Amino acid sequence: NAGVTQTPKFRILKIGQSMTLQCTQDMNHNYMYWYRQDPGMGLKLIYYSVGAGITDKGEVPNGYNVSRSTTEDFPLRLELAAPSQTSVYFCASSYSHPDSVVPNYGYTFGSGTRLTVV
Amino acid sequence: GNSVTQMEGPVTLSEEAFLTINCTYTATGYPSLFWYVQYPGEGLQLLLKATKADDKGSNKGFEATYRKETTSFHLEKGSVQVSDSAVYFCALIGFGNEKLTFGTGTRLTIIP
């Protein structure tokens, strides 16, 4: 009954360092997403994936990369970390019916990764 | 494109007060509508949802009705508790578009 699992929960990076935020889900959801939440703000979509091998950009993709080699995993890579990437990152997943006649019933979110770049 | 506008916070209420958090949306077609709740230090949890006009979503004493004529999905609760203190997000998914669009969130604080 794990749902969406994110690791690590906290991380401090120095400017210019790189890291990968891990996300895995065990619900066999076809869609996965990465969001960032800045203090006092809503969520902004970074990248999403509609299935293994397929990824696409969201609203704020610059400075990030993703891959989706399996249904379960959707890691987010930060290259050359910058202070502007200090944020809380949330991974989410959902199931979307292939023919889109069944409405999406909502996302399941992970508990988040709090990242500070100094 | 799709957008969600929700009541700005913060909102502070006394325990047992009546709660309304307003949410209106702009979308083409027939979106699905959601309320998510984020407790301190945690991720977002689905609170309730409605997938078609006039549907009422409900959970934990909270309710919201999908009003297509006013493009609204206001969140209500008759008697709030201290444990309801959290940030509440209204959101939608456009039909055939699987990306959630969020409002900016409303921080709710309930005082004893």
Could you explain how this protein is built, in words?
The complex is a heterodimer of chains A (118) and B (112). Chain A is mostly beta strands. Chain A is built from no helices and eleven strands. In chain A, strands 2, 4, 5, 6, 9, 10 and 11 form a seven-stranded mixed beta sheet that branches. Chain A has a four-stranded antiparallel beta sheet with strand order 1-3-8-7, with no helix packed on it. The model of chain A has no long low-confidence stretch (mean pLDDT 91). By secondary structure, chain B is an all-beta fold. Chain B has strands at residues 3-6, 11-14, 19-21, 23-26, 32-38, 44-50, 56-59, 62-65, 75-77, 86-93, 100-102, 106-111. In chain B, strands 2, 5, 6, 10, 11 and 12 form a six-stranded mixed beta sheet that branches. The mean pLDDT of chain B is 92. Classes of the chains: A mainly beta (118), B mainly beta (112). The interface between A and B is medium-sized, with 24 and 22 residues.
Characterize the biggest β-sheet of chain B.
6 strands, mixed
What summary fits the major beta sheet of chain A? 7 strands, mixed
Number of extended strands of chain A:
11
What is the element string of chain A, with H for helices and E for strands?
Answer: EEEEEEEEEEE
Count the helices of chain A. How many?
0
The helix-strand sequence of chain B is EEEEEEEEEEEE
What's the pLDDT, averaged over the residues of chain B?
A: 92
Compute the CA-based radius of gyration of chain A: 14 Å
**pLDDT below 50 for ≥5 consecutive residues: which ranges of chain B?**
none
Number of helices of chain B: 0
Residue-averaged pLDDT of chain A: 91
Global outline of chain B: globular
Span of the ends, CA to CA of chain A: 36 Å
Assess the beta-strand content of chain A as a share of residues. over 45%
Helical percent range of chain A?
Answer: under 10%
β-strand percent of chain B reads over 45%
Write down the oligomeric state: heterodimer
